[in-house]
Description:
antibiotic resistance, cell membrane, EC 2.3.2.3
Amino acid sequence: MTRRNRIVLVVMLLVGLGILYFSLRNVNLNQIWHDFINLNWWWLAVAVLCISLYLVIEGLIVKLFVGPRVPDFTFKNALRVPLVEQLGNGITPFASGGQPFQLVAMMQAGVDPGYSSAILLMKFIIYQFVIVMNFFVALLIGSHYMGDKVHIMRYLMIFGFLIHFAVIVGLILVMYWYSLTKKLTAICLGFIKYFGFGGKEKRLERYQRANQWVDERLENFHKESKRMSKDWLLIVKGVLLTSLQLMFYYSIPYFIMLALGYTNVNYILITALHVLIVMVISIFPIPGGSGGAEVSFSSLFSSFIGNASSLVLAMLLWRFLTYYFGMFAGIFAFNMRADKVRGHSNWHFQSKKKK
């Protein structure tokens, strides 16, 4: 990680401690400790298993997309990608660092940047699509409860949906509209040409090298994007695996509540409310949606968990599993050496085919 990323990570951990202090300020600590030691640890283990399977299945999705063209891309490399993504998501506003961190992880394994970008973009579009579909279903299930409980959150969730929908449209345009992508890339590279370090000749030389490098990868990116979009079996597998992956993630609050002894809760309603909470978190610019995530959880689940100490404990366990667990795993994965792929991956395959 860069020095800046380390600083942001430390800041987010301090923010987490601040939120922890704020959450505990009016709660009986002895009661929280009593609730903690009396947890049903088997159900809590199921919640831990859910977040673990969420990450493992995303590794399987990466392997699914990379495997046909880079067969020596190991599952260790594939699993490393979502773990590093969790770290990138956790330390950047709107989780914007997840994609660059994944790209770095794949490049460290020796996968071509253009091919990696196409894979990650296709995977991200499928992920966003499944999230939007889940939101529609969850809105139908939980809208009446949500409307009676918290009016303002209804508008936040709809706003979050519009953002996700706009992201899908934007990514599809980038994937298929080659001239638009070229223009956007040219604008970004223009900063190197006019605002980079060094003299005018040095900046121009650096710009020309970067422009040539980007052009080659951009062409590869669009070729692979079109190829993958025509492979309907691959897309269907990706959608099914992503749906399964998110099912485990959305189930986490339900098993936490079972661990706390709330055994009469409705699985479908609790899961639907979690879908809606995730949609709200996505619109908060603070990394990890810190503050908004905790408030959203407490607001929607306070009717199910009447005890204040149990509600705070449930929120803390949920926050650890859905945010900090991935970040800590990402730190470990980021410092893990990637297995280098051998020289018969996609970009070599294409060059041989042209000869």
